[in-house]
Design brief:
Layout: E1 2-6, H1 10-22, E2 26-30, H2 33-43, E3 54-58, H3 69-81, E4 87-91, H4 96-104, E5 109-112, H5 117-141, H6 145-157, E6 164-167, H7 174-185, E7 191-195, H8 204-209, H9 226-229, E8 234-238, H10 245-257, E9 259-260, E10 269-270, E11 274-279, H11 283-288, H12 294-300, E12 303-306, H13 317-332, E13 338-339, H14 343-349, H15 355-369, E14 375-376, H16 378-381, H17 395-402, E15 412-413, E16 420-421, H18 427-441, H19 446-452, H20 457-466
Parallel strand pairs: 1-2, 1-3, 3-4, 4-5, 6-11, 6-12, 7-8, 8-11, 13-14
Antiparallel strand pairs: 9-10, 15-16
Helix pairs in contact: 1-18, 5-6, 5-7, 10-12, 13-15, 18-19
Length: about 475
């Protein structure tokens, strides 16, 4: 996916670029409303321009103002011109009135500064994940009888709020099916995915139900759980058969009572999230052996969808390969390669123990290895494992193909020392650069510098101390 990040603060842009690059999310920047419009127009000008999946939009562009008027006007314009591109607004003036007005004008969500990295990445991935799921399911639906049956069942039950249990081997596309259920449900909330089988006993309730400030020793702030984040949407619980029985009982209570209680909270909250779960295990066998609660299985198993392995769906290979190739060349800005004769035969002959996920990785590697060629050949698939570790001969090609174009930024001068800082290499470097630029922008007003970063004065001074910055008097 690709995100257009718009903010007039270079430090904020650098921090977001580092975060998104680390998460393998494509990123382009814009410093003004005019540049936002220009880049969106360019991305929609033709097939050669890579489109944006999400716009992350700051609301303040005029110096010494927190009204958000310019950003809100731009938001209204974007919703009219590009109704299919979701817009997330972001600003340091975190007020209820601002959030309400932004949502009224068509924003899909609202992120205050300073943002939570994990929540922001999860939000962006969720917004960018819908079309690929629909596209993949569509490619499968008309080709494989087994997947046609899955598709027909989804169409029949997606509108309801009953739990769905998805079974199938590792990598067969269970999360893809879960996303398709959500996409076709018409639910207004988000799709939130969680590996339920990997949650430690001590963090299970906090991850699912959240906690209030002071709920336990290290709970320095309140936190929303997965059920709250999926309110009005879909909560996907993967590897549900691996949950310990103590955790199974807590999940069963939520499904039965349709409410949950955050740790430390005095009252329960209603649960409006639809639960879709998945497993690759023989969950009925585990229930018979006393390792999985039968009553929880009954609750989860209202609708059962079984995803067959890829080796039983080989007729879908051409459509899946086309989708994966198009996605990778779009992600890295590469030319579309011609698929050579013999590629499909080689793919059909493979056993696919890793199913669709393995196919995805094979195609990703093949696209990168063929980045400087006009043709993707069976040799690029590397299905026999030779060179799967990416030897010295292929590493430079892959590095060149994967490296996103980086804009070289002017160095930021520390206000307390003559040494200059180069382009930031870590999130900590980016935070320091943002603080220094705020000090340069407001050299006589510490409060304004703090507010421009979305920080209180005390939090701002703590960060000055952490980074060893001594502002000039």
């Amino acid at each position: 996916m690709r995100v257009l990040v718009a903010d007039d603060d270079e430090g904020v842009l650098m921090a977001l670029e580092l975060l998104l690059q680390r998460e393998r999310i494509g990123c382009a920047r814009a410093l003004s409303p005019a540049e936002v419009v220009e880049k969106l127009a360019g991305s929609n000008a033709g097939a050669s321009a890579e489109p944006f999946d999400v716009v992350l939009l700051d609301l303040n562009y005029e110096r010494d103002t927190t009204s958000g008027h310019e950003g809100l006007s731009l938001l209204s314009r974007l919703r009219k011109q590009y109704p299919d591109v979701p817009v997330v607004v972001m600003t340091g003036w975190a007020s209820i009135e601002g959030a309400v007005e932004a949502m009224r004008r068509g924003a899909v969500d609202y992120v205050p500064k300073p943002w939570d990295n994990r929540r922001l990445v999860e939000l962006l991935r969720g917004l960018g994940a819908g079309p690929p799921a629909a596209a993949l399911l569509g490619a499968a639906a008309g080709l494989s009888a087994a997947m046609q049956a899955v598709h027909a069942t989804i169409e029949q039950v997606a509108f309801s709020d009953v739990p769905v249990l998805i079974t199938g081997e590792h990598g067969s596309g269970k999360e893809l099916i879960a996303r398709a259920v959500h996409d076709q449900s018409g639910r207004s909330g988000k799709f939130v995915a969680l590996n339920a089988g990997a949650l430690a006993e001590g963090t299970f309730e906090s991850e699912l139900f959240g906690h209030v400030r002071g709920a336990y020793t290290d709970a320095k702030g309140a936190r929303e759980g997965a059920f709250a984040r999926a309110e009005g949407g879909t909560l996907f619980l993967d590897e549900v058969a691996n949950m310990p029985q103590s955790q199974q009982a807590k999940l069963l209570r939520v499904l039965q009572e349709r409410q949950y209680q955050p740790l430390g909270a005095s009252a329960a909250r209603a649960s409006t999230a639809r639960v879709v779960s998945a497993t690759n295990a023989d969950i009925e066998g585990l229930a018979r052996a006393g390792q999985f609660r039968p009553d929880l299985l009954y609750r989860l198993n209202t609708i059962r969808l079984h995803v067959p392995p890829l080796r039983e769906r080989l007729s879908e290979l051409p459509g899946l390969v086309q989708i994966f190739v198009e996605r990778e060349v779009t992600r890295y800005g590469l030319p579309m390669p011609r698929i050579a004769q013999g590629v499909l035969r080689a793919l059909e002959a493979h056993g696919w123990p890793g199913n669709v996920r393995e196919l995805e990785h094979v195609i990703q590697r093949a696209v990168l290895l063929s980045a400087r060629a006009a043709e993707l050949t069976p040799a690029h698939l590397d299905l026999d494992g030779r060179g799967s570790s990416f030897g010295a001969a292929t590493a430079p090609v892959i590095a060149a193909a994967m490296a996103p174009p980086l804009e070289v930024l002017p160095p930021v001068v520390d206000t307390s020392a003559p040494a200059a800082l180069g382009p930031p290499r870590t999130v900590r470097d980016a935070e320091k650069a943002a603080i220094l630029q705020a000090l340069e922008r407001y050299p006589e007003d510490r409060r304004a510098a703090a507010e421009s970063l979305g920080l209180s004065r005390s939090a701002f001074y703590r960060r000055l101390s952490q980074h060893g910055i001594r502002p000039q008097k």
